[in-house]
Design goal:
The structure is a single chain. The chain is α+β, with helices and mostly antiparallel strands. It is built from 10 helices and 13 strands. It has 2 domains: 176 residues, Aminopeptidase; 148 residues, Gcn5-related N-acetyltransferase (GNAT) (Aminopeptidase, 3-Layer(aba) Sandwich), CATH 3.40.630. 36% of the residues lie in helices and 32% in strands. It starts with a strand and ends with a strand.
Length: 352
């Protein structure tokens, strides 16, 4: 067994008491992103998952140094315990467990044993959407459950898109196919003939707070077009999370203004030199100038100028047709223990 200690925290205030060392740890390990921060996990849990028992497993070495965290939430249902991520489904595509890679498998094993100790005799079920295909936690979970005789399943749930950026915008343009490059340039020239186009980039907490009013108006217009509506809870979550992230210099709001009217907006997150396009919205009446495509192109220019090397697009429906995107799968991971009657009439654990 590796030389570490596990501690359980059940009070949501732990996200904030641990935030400095948690965030510092994320800066030390590879493959991290803003959705693994205590800010994102904590606010997501408080808004959407507080009906479940928080089971935050903290990893420290014998000197007390922070080595990772397993942010789980539990729900007891009859004779079994459902284990899920503290961040609920559909909030982002990056659910994972930031743990020092030397101890990952042992920490996940120990975390599962802690749940069993807290709920003796209960059957366990696990469901973690969404985990990316390159996540080391995916392999560790599969191996752990195989060793316990529990059959696990990973179900492809979709794909995210990303692009690697060159050092200058000209190189980016010439990485496009000629037809796409020509189409993009003509589209932008046409839009600027039709209207006085201005791209606005907001970063300070005060600017982001005002810009969110613009985004919400456009988001509502876009949803009304499809017969949907924006729930007050989700709006409050977006306002809270982007305000908090802007205070950490992790958020940017990109707005397209045409003839004095705000007609498009993109919410983006920035973390460790990468840009994550979270969502976007445009005025349906302004589609002839393709606001979101213009904003994506402007966001790419801005990212390159600031030395960003990678952009990831996290929502279907954002414009991707012009750009040289790569794809990566993400999965729903699940497993469940099932009781099987033994010849003696006692119940034994067995995997499905």
């Amino acid at each position: 067994m590796a030389d570490f200690r596990l501690y359980i925290e059940k009070d949501p205030s732990s996200f904030w008491s641990l935030k400095d060392e948690w965030t510092s740890f994320l800066n030390e390990i590879p493959g991290t992103n803003p959705f693994l921060t205590p800010h994102w996990v904590g606010i997501s849990y408080e808004f959407f998952s507080s009906d479940r028992e928080l089971f935050l497993v903290i990893v420290r070495d014998t000197s007390g140094r922070f080595l990772g965290v397993v942010p789980w939430a539990l729900r007891k249902v009859n004779d079994h315990v459902e284990i899920e991520h503290a961040v609920p489904e559909d909030i982002c595509l990056y659910l994972d467990f930031p743990i020092d890679q030397r101890f990952r498998s042992d920490v996940l094993k120990g975390s599962l044993e802690l749940v069993e100790r807290e709920h003796p005799g209960a059957r366990l079920s696990l469901r973690f959407p969404y985990i990316r295909e390159d996540s080391p936690s995916l392999w560790s979970l599969q191996k752990l459950l195989d060793e316990r005789g529990i059959e696990s399943e990973k179900i492809e749930a979709g794909r995210l898109y990303y692009m690697d950026l060159p050092d200058n915008y000209e190189d980016f343009l010439f990485s496009l196919k000629k037809r796409e490059r020509t189409h993009l340039q003509k589209m932008e020239k046409r839009a600027r003939r039709i209207a006085d186009i201005r791209e606005i980039e907001l970063r300070s907490p005060e600017e982001v707070n005002r810009g969110l009013d613009v985004f919400m108006r456009l988001y509502r217009l876009q949803m009304e077009e499809t017969g949907n509506s924006l729930s007050p809870g989700y709006e409050a979550f977006l306002r809270e999370i982007f305000l908090v992230f802007s205070q950490q210099s992790w958020a940017a709001l990109h707005i397209l203004n045409a003839d004095g009217w705000n007609v498009g907006a993109i919410l983006a997150l920035e973390f460790r030199g990468n840009t994550f396009v979270f969502t976007g919205a445009e005025d349906p009446q302004a589609r002839e100038i393709s606001p979101l495509t213009l904003l994506m192109n402007g966001l790419i220019k801005s990212s390159i100028s600031r030395g960003v090397k990678r952009i990831e697009i996290l929502q279907d429906g954002l414009p991707t047709g012009f750009f040289p995107l790569k794809q990566e799968r993400y999965y729903i991971f699940k497993a469940e223990e099932r009781p099987v009657p033994s010849p003696s009439g006692e119940r034994e654990r067995a995997s499905r």
